[in-house]
From TrEMBL:
InterPro entries: DPD_II (IPR028261), FAD/NAD-bd_sf (IPR036188), FAD/NAD-binding_dom (IPR023753), GltD-like (IPR006006), Helical_ferredxn (IPR009051). It comes from Algicella marina. SUPFAM superfamilies: alpha-helical ferredoxin, Nucleotide-binding domain. Residues 152-468 form the FAD/NAD(P)-binding domain. Keywords: 4Fe-4S, Iron, Iron-sulfur, Metal-binding, Oxidoreductase. The keyword Iron-sulfur applies. This is NAD(P)-binding protein.
Length: 490
């Protein structure tokens, strides 16, 4: 009987939770997708073909047991579905909302390849865990036994939180150090509420704290506490700082007022949503209200910036990207959402400089506030080393886009941690990312591990979660081995 609930993809069409109308959602920062009803979630989960080689699972960085929890959902066994989902993913309610499923699990769904439309995996994952919270199935961590060993984690982003969860479940004493006043990293201050409402993150933080994890917030390593002191205080340390240093733009006028970093713009907006005092927002410096906004970049951060600008009441919002739509790294689903909300994508364009209110003493360098972006038109030429076509400038086709606010969303680079932390023994790559063993995540410093973007470069939340879980497993094995050796020596 249960099996008859599956393999429904031939008779049941693909459906996603309904989106709020663009005109409605433009006026707030609430999530745009409504919840699945129970019957619809069961129906959509039943479209899974339960294939012998589940490519959805293979292409998920966490290798989630997707066919299993889809089957359980179709059968109405939601608590079991949640337990299976939680077994491999520390934050399924977050991944269900912000993972680019079109590039990962859903993009590799077998029935999608046969023309029947992918299973809506992300929406079902979100439904399962939101139901688990509603029903009280998500409990604070209760270790079977307490361990005396302690682990310090630098960074309260998704990787650090995932590692903390696994380590605490094994009874270790866990302390997380973070420079910000709230835990969550980019989940709190980088990703807008219309993609990830903040109570989804804060309730998980509260659950971790209730389980015995200690948070030391407003704590800047290298200033408030030294890296050496953290190493001295703990049996193992995980570096999970992420990458926050923005890539810069050059060209005439690059230092004009009104040209801002994406991280500053998004953080100000998110802080405002918490009710914080944000002088840079109130003054208009980091506020798009009534302005012609130009965002430069093509990733998910750029998508967040254009859609935030719309909600802040921008006069116009345009995004410049040097390649075409097909070659854009950001989620195509996000592009569609942004277009519905009135964002204009200007493909095959790149900034060459900026126009200001006036020119300086040399008569050429723009001064004052930004008034426009000098734009070069591009075309796609021969493929580069990665196989993507390289953009080339079309000479003589430059023009100016009006702009009162320019947001740089060109990606992030790592900070110089060895210098900031006075730890020359912390080895880094030529890109400035921390060197760590691919399997164990251990660095050149004994007992020090590194995970997430500070190792990979700017990447997806789901990869940070995977790294955090793998580092935790390495630490558990290492400390268990040391404990066994200690017992044997007695």
């Amino acid at each position: 009987m249960a099996q008859n609930r599956m393999l429904q993809f031939v008779d049941v069409a693909r459906a996603t939770p309904p989106k709020r109308a663009a005109e409605e959602r433009k006026g707030d920062f609430d999530e745009i997708y409504r919840e699945f009803a129970a019957e619809k979630a069961n129906e959509q989960a039943g479209r899974c073909s339960q294939c012998g080689v589940p490519y959805c699972q293979t292409h998920c960085p966490l290798h989630n047991n997707i066919p299993d929890w889809l089957k359980l959902t179709a059968e109405g066994r939601l608590q079991e579905a949640y337990e299976v989902s939680q077994a491999t993913n520390t934050f399924p309610e977050i991944c269900g909302r912000i993972c680019p499923q079109d590039r990962l699990c859903e993009g590799n769904c077998v029935i999608e390849q046969s023309g029947h439309g992918t299973v809506t995996i992300g929406a079902v994952e979100k439904y399962i865990t939101d139901t688990a919270w509603e029903k009280g199935w998500v409990k604070p961590i209760q270790p079977g036994q307490e361990r005396k060993e302690s682990i310090g984690i630098i960074g309260a982003g998704p990787g650090g939180l995932a590692a903390a969860d696994m380590l605490r479940r094994q009874g270790f004493q866990v302390t997380i150090y973070d420079r910000y006043d709230r835990a969550g990293g980019l989940l709190i201050y980088g990703i807008p509420g219309f993609k990830l409402e903040k109570d989804v993150v804060t309730r998980r933080n509260d659950q971790l704290a209730a389980g015995g994890i200690t948070f030391k917030l407003n704590c800047n390593v290298g200033e408030d506490i030294s890296f050496a002191e953290i190493r001295e205080a703990h049996d193992a340390v995980i570096i999970a700082t992420g990458v926050y240093q923005s890539r810069e733009l050059g060209g005439p006028g690059a230092r004009l007022n009104g040209i801002v970093r994406a991280i500053d713009f998004l953080t100000a907006s998110n802080r405002k949503s918490f009710g914080d005092e944000v002088p840079e927002y109130d003054s208009g410096e980091l506020n798009a209200d009534g302005k012609n906004v130009v965002v430069i970049g093509g990733g998910d951060t750029a998508m967040d910036c254009v859609r935030t600008s719309v909600r802040q009441g921008a006069k116009s919002v345009k995004l410049l990207y040097r390649r075409d739509r097909a070659n854009m790294p950001g989620s195509q689903r996000e592009v569609e959402n942004a277009e519905e909300e009135g964002v204009e994508f200007v493909w095959l364009t790149a900034p060459r400089g900026f126009v200001g209110e006036g020119n300086g003493p040399d008569g050429e360098t723009p001064t004052g506030s930004v008034k426009g972006v000098r734009v070069a038109k591009m075309r796609l030429g021969a493929p580069d080393a990665t196989g993507r076509q390289s953009p080339e400038v079309i000479e003589g086709a430059d023009y100016t886009e009006d702009a009162d606010l320019v947001i740089k969303a060109l990606g992030f680079e790592p900070e110089e941690l060895p210098k900031l932390w006075d730890e020359p023994g912390l080895e880094v790559t030529r890109w400035g990312t921390v060197k760590a063993d691919f399997g164990t995540k251990e660095t050149a410093l004994p007992g020090v591990y590194a995970i997430g973007d500070i190792v990979r470069g700017a990447s997806l939340v789901v990869w940070a979660i995977r790294d955090g879980r793998e580092a935790a497993e390495s630490i558990i094995q290492s400390l268990n081995a040391k404990a066994a050796e200690s017992v044997a020596a007695e």
